Amino acid sequence: MTATLIDGKAVAADLKQKIQENVTYLKSEYGVTPGLATVLVGERPDSKAYVASKQKACAELGMNSYGLPLPADISQHELLTQVQALARDSNVHGILVQLPLPEHLDAETILGAIPIEKDVDGFSPLNVGRLSMKNREPLFVPCTPLGCLRLIESTGTQIEGARAVVLGRSNIVGLPMAFLLLHRNATITICHSRTRDLPDLVRQADIVVAAIGKTRFVQGSWIKPGAVVIDVGINEIPDATKKSGKRLVGDVDFDSAQAVAGFITPVPGGVGPMTIAMLMQNTLTAAQRAAGLIK
Ligand SMILES: NC(=O)c1ccc[n+]([C@@H]2O[C@H](COP(=O)([O-])OP(=O)(O)OC[C@H]3O[C@@H](n4cnc5c(N)ncnc54)[C@H](OP(=O)(O)O)[C@@H]3O)[C@@H](O)[C@H]2O)c1
Hints:
The chain contains 10 helices and 11 strands. It has 295 residues and is of the alpha/beta class. It folds into 2 domains: 31-116, Rossmann fold; 142-273, Rossmann fold. A 6-stranded parallel beta sheet has the order 1-11-8-7-5-6. Strands 3-2-4 form a 3-stranded parallel beta sheet, with helices on both faces. Strands 9-10 form a two-stranded antiparallel ribbon. A hairpin with a 7-residue loop joins strand 9 (235-238) and strand 10 (246-249). The longest helix is centred in the N-terminal third of the chain and has 23 residues, at 8-30. It is globular, with a radius of gyration of 19 Å. The structure holds NADP nicotinamide-adenine-dinucleotide phosphate. The site of NADP nicotinamide-adenine-dinucleotide phosphate (NAP) has 25 residues, from helix 10.
């Protein structure tokens, strides 16, 4: 069997098209332009690139983006003051603080200053708490797992009753992913660095989500024939054929897994584009809520 590729770029493009239509409607009918504030502290090249791609997506979809580049040595008090000002600004519907912050800053306190209704990253303990409970609706769900869920749904695979293995238990990806699948009535196993017999657990899974940050860790021989494999990992490896001298690969050994799986995401071009699309969706939702159009 050769797995069908799940084209994250195409699924994201469809979603962005719908978001753009909603943004146009919101502007023309209600005079509201969704606005996303991006707080970037310091000069980390990866963080700068992520923020730039989020701002670019806002521009493409007709949303406002408010960039707040701040010096790496900003004090906790000053950063808090800036985030609090964004919290009060009615033109700003979503606030994103790019992580990681420099070590002298307390990320939890800073993130705590983002009101739940502007928490478009879905990282606030209140949103996470609601996601982890039965019959409670978070206002926002973290963008990467939400994007993964969309990709799984795009395959037409029945999630209800499926066995799903999530590799990784981070607050940003693994845990929310597991809850999203659980709420869709899958049976979940969450694996982490201390899990025993990992290959055997993965072999039982109809759906595998790998989010561990380990280059080509999951082998094709671990994959159940026909399974859906979602590779969240972003790992750099040297590649002399590239101008940059490197390229990105996932947490799954793509070639061996593709030979066994039913569906598989590529890296790049799988989960990455969905993460940004879901951030745009969350920002639109925040603006629609602020305008009283949805709950
Ligand atoms: N495509 C995207 O948009 C996107 C977005 C976010 C993240 N990512 C990528 O996804 C990956 C994971 O990100 P993250 O933020 O969730 O990482 P993280 O916070 O470092 O968490 C990694 C998780 O993997 C587990 N783990 C590590 N080694 C393992 C092993 N050998 N076997 C089983 N589990 C193991 C860890 O277990 P313990 O808890 O026991 O330490 C931890 O739960 C990274 O490559 C990151 O770059 C991609």
